[in-house]
């Protein structure tokens, strides 16, 4: 089965849970603003990971649907607030929530999704998940929310710095991106009734493919094509973003190349993008990023093979791990 | 005992829980921004209500401290986000979080407090509260968070309307103000091990004193003095705010007085504040608001006497109910 088919498999059920979670939000403006981005598409990767993790440890799909919906609500909440902070006007090809409804309503829409997410996890009791199981699942989700906030704060702080270490960078993307994916697979394994060993392995699988996902993003920005990316190659360089490629190249480069790369990152415009890419190439930083992502994915797959019996759900999780690297945008 | 003494009694323990909840927030900027407003004072009314409610049903103070801290974190989260939405530059006599750290960090600080609040309720397990008790307590808190968002959205919507009914107004203040106070007393009764009847009564007590609290705010704006209020009498009128007094007067007034009151509310400046107050006085709306608040408090006190044995905690809750009406600012 293709990954796109896997992700489509649970999409309707997840959407139904999300609609149910939001249908009573009042006033109508707040309901619309809260629903806008969840209804605007998205791959539904995170909720599918919740459901597949539950199935992979022998649990029922139904036990994991509400937790899956909750993880998607949290992902959407963070996108809405990030778009306000970063003043991004588009998301999933549509105007951002704050562009359509204004910042105050967008802040509230995010807060509403956040609240509804926790409510939705707790309502898993209706689907037969016992209270002592819901609490650790909720804990995994809440813990990732703290990390998402910290990750975004670290990322904003990096914009003013030129001395970010690789360790700091990896910690930032763990918190900003990988923590929620790890929470998805961990919470799924918990509500699915996995053993402590399986829960731990699925959590780590989620963290690893989350890290690989972000690093692959960094890599594709210079290694893909404008056609595949849907935006010019080297956009991260133009924006002066700290990526694994940049952090690695800055650490390895000669003083001259180091300073030249910093200068290009700070300047506006795309005149010297290819020069920056040459510096990263020269020190092997493009290849390095690709290898780190590759190793993360291999390790993630090995973990699953170690603790899970073969099953369609395990196969799907293995395919998703590969998909993180195969995608071209 | 005086109410101020009652509120001071648990203050140090609550502060300690809040500090513990936030001490590991990283980066430092985010930790400072998250901590600023919780450390800026405040009466600690809500967390004290959690602890007193637990004690009043025979529970231990310790079982309720983390839930109390969580309720204060949620209250603070909502103040930080409200101040951004309303562009209020001061809070508790100090510059707002967004004034000191900028809007992006203020949004994140609110989100962090929100996440930490749920984490803190769940950590009650460390204090001996069993998992099946934590879940309903958490449910009460989460439910109030949804309502806080809805209440703020309704309030923002009222600013553009002149036909707000009393029912709509009461629904708005229930969600914006009373729901969290009801969650405080309900969650306290739950973690304290109260009977379903006691939990229900304490929840309703919280809702009623919360409603009275907000209505008394509306009342004091025209019935107190500039000295006591710390701001000019009639500020709500100058701001054109919908209050119970305004909504009631608009519903009762002759067409001429109705239109005149609307005109004064819409105009900028304070030239006609006393004329607006005269219209409200003429239709008995000032007296009416006072009576509604009075009745809410009486009902709240009766509920406690019906379901709780006499105890210092019950006495304290009765005193707090009276305090809601006796305060002059």
UniProtKB/TrEMBL annotation, chains A, B:
Gene Ontology molecular functions: metal ion binding; prenyltransferase activity
Family: Belongs to the FPP/GGPP synthase family.
GO annotation terms (biological process): isoprenoid biosynthetic process
Class of the enzyme per the UniProt entry, highest EC level: transferase
EC number: 2.5.1.-
Chain's gene name: idsA
Cofactor(s) named in the record: Mg(2+)
Protein name in the entry: Short chain isoprenyl diphosphate synthase
Keyword Transferase applies: yes
